[in-house]
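Researcher: Here's a chain I'd like modeled. Treat it as a single chain, no partners, no ligands.
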Amino acid sequence: MIIRPKIRGFICITAHPEGCEKNILEQINYIKSQDEISDSPKKILVIGSSTGYGLASRIVASFGCKADTIGVYFERPEVDGKPASAGFYNARALDKFSQAEGRVSESINGDAFSDEIKQITIEQIQKNLGKVDCIIYSLASPRRTDPLSGETYKSVLKPIGTVFSGKTVNTDTEQVLEISIDPATEEEIEATQKVMGGEDWERWIDQLLAANVLAKNVRTYAYSYIGPEVTWPIYAHGTIGKAKDHLEQSAKVIHNKLKNLGGEAAISVNKAVVTQASSAIPVVPLYNSVLFKIMKQKEIHEGCIEQIYRLFSSHFNANRDERGRIRLDNLEMRDDVQREVKEIWSEISTENLRELSDFEGYKNEFLRLFGFGITGVDYERDIKIL
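Model: Modeled as a single isolated chain. Structure tokens:
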């Protein structure tokens, strides 16, 4: 079949297997062009590993640290002649290239929130790694079923306390619009925290500890985002922000649990990038388009792979703030960058969208997530789907 991008709102419902593989190979080649990361973890578990920052973490671990990895994700395989999800193809390609260089690279496809997948992961660690010395927690999901209560919680992207009004861009029509979003209820705030907070991260660590598969001096990091003032009502001060606050509190709890092993738990606050998850957040696609233009002009723009290489190569100590958080967003949050974002934000409209932002670059990066727009891929070639 000929596979073309089919966009539905903020998601692409098709993925190109050859495009995804080529995209992975390009990221691998970038890492190979950098200095090898010495004194790095060598047995790494990445929870939420098929797209975005989690995927980049496995690539950097395997090809920058020369580490053995296990990745956990929840993706749709090929079925009934329909293409798999992009994340499925990403993980398959990563395993292929990593195993070809003699490293352990195993993927577990299932609900990472479930105790069943946690147990399968523990068994894989025992079989293939023995113990892990680094755990990256990078889950992004709209829902979670609590393994204890059986209740399913759904996250929402809403402000808290007051109605949010602000600019966004309709990525289909390329119109800059004013939107209003009603505040979340207490139940929605709690549900979002259940999905996107640190409860599951802590549960993972508890079960890994109980199974005695954590090495001495083990470290674990969860990824977060703060962003600029323009996004705060819907992000840092909204339901997601509450969940991220809970994630930070969980880091402290986990850190204490790892003390006997000489371990560490911390949050890495990363830069705004194009991911499947971020594309769903109102305001963010427009903000990213403006931000990318400015950072590219200043030659300080980074994507997921560059960010995570910087994280690993700094030995997880880059730019710690007073709360112990790693601040990989330091370039994004530079005063000169944010000052220019504010200036453009007040002026941007449908008419000047492409002039004042890198909307074209944003759209290209979005399509690349699904294997489209990759140089060297023949998109007219017939692809066999199982």
